[in-house]
Amino acid sequence: MLNNWLKIAFINYKKNWLSTAINLFGLTVGLTGFMLILLHWNDEESFEKWNPKKDQIYYFQSYYKTDNSYGNNISVPMARRAKEVIPGVEDYVLFNGSGIGLKMTTKYKTAYQQEGMTGTESFFNFFPFKLVSGTYKNALKGEGVIALSTIAAKNLFGTTNAAGESVKFDGKNYVVTAVYELPKDNSQIKPQFIINPVQQIKDDEKNWGNFNYGCFFMLKKGTNIDDLQQKFLKEIFEYRAKLDKDSSGMTPQQYLDLYGPTGSVFTPLDEIKLHAKASWFGSPDFKTIMILFTLSVLIVVLSAINFINLKTAQASQRAKEIGVRKAIGSTRSNLIVQFLMETFVICIASYLLSLALTELLLPSFNKFFDKEMKMNDWHIYFDSFVMVILVTLISGLIPAMYLSNFKAIETLKGNFARSKHGIWLRNGILTLQLIISSFFIIGGLIVNQQVKYMMNKDLGYSGKQILIINFSESNPKSWLKYERLRTEMSKIPGVAEVSYGEIVPGSNRSSSSNVDFMDKSIQAQHGSMDYNYLQFMNVKLKKGRWLDPNLSSDTINNVLVNEAFVKKFGWNDDEVFKNEIRPGFDTKKYNIVGIVKDFNIRSLRTAIDPVIFFHYKETEWKRLNVYNIQLKIKPDDIDGTVKRIKKYWSGSVEPGYPFDYFFVDQKFAKTFEKYKRQQTLFTILNAMVLMVALLGLFALSSLMIEQKLKDVAIKKTLGASDGILIMGLTKQFLWITLVAVLISIPISYYLMNEWLKDFAYRIDMPVWPFMISLVVLLVLTFAVVSIKAYKATKVSLVKYLKYE
Questions:
Q1: Mind listing the pLDDT tens digit for each residue in 376-430?
Q2: CA 531 to each of CA 19, 547, 624: distance values in angstroms, whole numbers, following the listed order
Q3: Counted domains in the chain
Q4: C-alpha angle 245/250/256, rounded to 5°?
Q5: In a domain, 582, yes or no
Q6: What is the DSSP code string of 699-730?
Q7: pTM for this model (two decimals)
Q8: Which helix (H) or strand (E) holds 621?
Q9: Which of 648, 671, 694 is the last residue of a domain?
């Protein structure tokens, strides 16, 4: 029986070769897109799976109800108290630096070692990397110890057996206590060396408000996260509020409402990459993954729709076969299984082709996402095969049910075509296909428009020809170094101007604190700077004045603020200069002397934060943390000037350290890369959808017009013109297209409006993408269908009317 079914299947494949080719092509393209996005998703979900303690390790994040925002920081006393008083907390590890680079000296060589990290002494209890040399016991206890990766050990000592060796940096000697091998699996935590910031921890151990650290908590098995969050609120946040309430004159609840945090979030270690609310290790973006995955599934659905439509349209060719088989005793269930088998053969062939195509496209896909994914995960094969089974059932069962319902007597008499059931089914499924196509066109145009808007938006500053050079992290008197370099580097030919600013567009490095006025408090970014920095960046002054080097008060307690700062407090511009503010980074009050126009320092996806600008000498903390020098380069010889600056820097300023620099405009442009990738992917998916949909439409219209050739011959005999015949054959499809686009408009509007809500700076929802979608689909539908309709008008009248 199976052999007979296969013979019948291949006869029909050959007879309807165009439909077969389109089904194969559509399903192959759809499954390939599905596999590639699934690979990407699985790769993102695979981070930290190597860690045997991942089920007990949770990443701490704080929640601020007032701003509905999340933070990724904690203070030392908060973490310590959590371990002491909350039963579910077994241990914690604090860190406050990642990607650290230091020039290290050993008895063998001096080398610059990158990608270091700070961590408290329980670090290896949380991240048990494979130990190669030394011991983890007390490996990070106290000052003067360091742990190295095998890569760092080879770089510094030429061997991995480096435990007990000595290394010197920042003027201090450190003993190598352990050498470890980093996991080959995906991980965001892969430090090449680890040091314990002992002195900094001591300095911060009583400062409840110094949120300088990230934190992982080790929880006891069975700990309820909801209970943990409640206990954290009561035992940590409210406890801190009670400590400060006497000095602030507020109740604990008022203190929490004003300063926060008001809640906590604990994310499992292996979910940080995609699902954390805020992270030290990069912004999670699960929503984008889900959008791409959904779009890839929609392409597979479109391919299944093609299959259903073409199978039901071929009903007339299979009707007599079904009637004969029913007449000789074949059951309905036998017929359904046969048709499902025919569908499965096409689907499994598409699956095998898609595996080959995925392997072929994977190198380019890896380059696009800067990854090294491989087809070595059985989940990919299993999940994609499950999709094949689902497609087989969905696209095979509907036509199978429809065809198996034919009655033997009617089909043998030739009356099967009189039922309108099949026509409604085909039209309904074709409408769904065109709805999806319309959504992709509308969505693609809106995505393009949003990305174009962001790239062309006035950022409020000019970063052209501004070069930023970062200092090494180990300078104890960084402001003196900056002031010396400002004088010396301004003499380099090609350097037009020199300045310093903590707020650097395109950089993630920043700090913030509360700023108080009377009974209100806001969170504001710190903008320590040199006098000329805002003018240097071509930021516009809205009201008031700039900081003046001739006024001593401008290095004591005078500041500027941006428009977002003023708006956050609810002031008008005149009120600003009458109010004294108290920022959390100092104990004295400050006067506002100027308001500057808002300018973007981060991605346009987020709103501009309130910023307080002040001279770096106004507070000791910022004076000790001047970390860059910025130079405006003359436009006539940029490359030559950069070479001269690099030669001076490498020879006189920081020999042995890399020349760590970037141009501001180029750095900020990188914030658009993610959205450009989304734009490119949406464009590719859009093209795939239209191609699959139009091929299916062409095949379906061909089959349906074939069934009307006798009607065409009769009308032509009666004098109908080619234009009338073509319009008569195409108008049904044009009506279906019109209805589909009208249905898709509210759906597309809602979904794209939800997508745009993620951007603080976004376009107003335009009307023209909806109009273009309608016009494009109507034109393409007419073009595709009219090709076959035109051929139908050239039929041989004798061939179709000789028996009439």
A1: 878 888 888 888 888 888 777 766 666 655 555 555 455 544 445 556 766 777 7
A2: 72, 6, 17
A3: 2
A4: 80
A5: yes
A6: HHHHHHHHTTHHHHHHHHHTT--HHHHHHHHH
A7: 0.82
A8: helix 620-623
A9: 671
Contact yes or no for 558/590 (Cβ under 8 A) = yes
List of residues 6+ apart from 216 with CB closer than 8 A? 57, 58, 59, 60, 92, 93, 126, 269
Decide which of 227 and 518 is more confident: 227
pLDDT of residue 85: 94
Calculate the alpha carbon distances from 278 to 61, 210, 281, 301, 685 in Å: 7, 18, 9, 35, 30
Q: What is the dihedral of CA 381, 386, 392, 395, to 10 degrees?
A: -110
Question: 616, 637, 671: which is the final residue of a domain?
Answer: 671
Across the chain, what does the average pLDDT equal? 83
**412-425 confidence digits (pLDDT tens):** 455 544 445 556 76
Residue 659 lies in a domain: yes
**Domain enclosing residue 191, as ranges:** 71-224
Which amino acid is it at 572? N
Tokens 């296909």 belong to residue: 433
User: 717-738: b or e for each residue (b if 16 or more CB lie within 10 Å)?
Assistant: eeeeeeeebbeebbeebeebbe
Closest residue by Cα to residue 316 from 393, 423, 394, 424: 423
The whole-angstrom separation of Cα 402 and Cα 322 is: 11
- Phi-psi bin for 458: left (phi > 0), alpha (psi -120 to 50), beta? beta
Beta strands 172-181 and 130-134, pairing class? antiparallel
Pairing of strands 590-596, 558-562: parallel
Q: What is the DSSP string of 513-577?
A: EEEEETTEEEEEEEEEE-TTHHHHTTPPEEEE----TT-GGGGTTEEEEEHHHHHHHT--HHHHT
Rounded CA-CA distance 679/450 in Å is 9
- The band of 510, judged by pLDDT with boundaries at 50, 70 and 90, is confident
Separation CA 257–CA 261 (nearest Å): 8
Q: Which two tokens stand for residue 162?
A: 């480096």
